[in-house]
Amino acid sequence: MAASAATPWMPELCRLPRLAAMLGLAELVVVVLALAPDGSRHWTVGELASASGFALWLALAVTASLCLLRQALSKLPELLGAVAAVGLAALIAILCAGIIHALYGVLGDNFARGIGFWRFTLGSAATTALITALALRYFYVSDRWAAQVQANARAQADALQARIRPHFLFNSMNLIASLLHRDPAVAERAVLDLSDLFRAALGAGEGDSTLRDECELAERYLSIESLRLGDRLRVHWQRDEPLPWDLPMPRLVLQPLVENAVLHGISRLPEGGTIELHLACVGSELQIRVRNPAPDPQVPGLALAQGAGHAQHSIGHRLTWRFGRAARMTAGWSEGYYACQVTVPIQ
User: Given this model, what pLDDT does residue 200 score?
Assistant: First the structure.
């Protein structure tokens, strides 16, 4: 299947880590040849240095060429484009090897002694083609896996945005309608909060948010719910400054945790309770903790609903995709309280 020009299927070799990987593979070939126990020749330090220089030069030339021709090769069908890329690498190897063999022959260098021109050039071409094919295959699979992880993370975000339940919208609209004549200013503020909340939900899979935006969104949600629950809902924020307010984060990380605290904790208790939100930097990590009173999950009929578990799984997955394994999320019920903590590295 041909790839579109907007999303080239050809692996990106212009990045420094991949250039380093190609150079490392070239040097590895030289080391393997030097250590091969065939007894045909004994490598000196000078020959090892010459071979390393040739291999690195060849790897750099192949990588730069495939980098520059990535768009053109990606316009071809994948199989044909892969064959063309490997063939181009072999052709570059023939030209470079021919130049090196001729140059060393004129200078009388010992690096190419006893090796015929065609054996040296064709052998270099075959080795280069094999290493290039293996490297491109590895990078191709790696890129497809990364794209799949990203697509999965976006699907999780799209599913999460649907969690802003219809009954919340209906309840909010009914609440706003009841406030229009009694307290127009509060009704207007609720409309603006609801608008911001759903704007964030519609963009859940698009780009990053920030710590400041996530906290403001949670505040807007709690403001709407406080109008519905009244004195039953109390909120206590603890922000241990300084905090990285501009830290990029996936969208809808904090608000779903606060929503779980309201739906599965506060709203199930006749007396309500206080949601505690604590933000602090510990070393090189940001910790966000949401704690609220909640019924005992061991009591039949009061267990945490499946929606809450889905939200936590989605948030954990997206945090891992965004920050890697350094991101963690823990949650659990203890002594009448349910607590959820998100830990992410400060980049």
Answer: 63
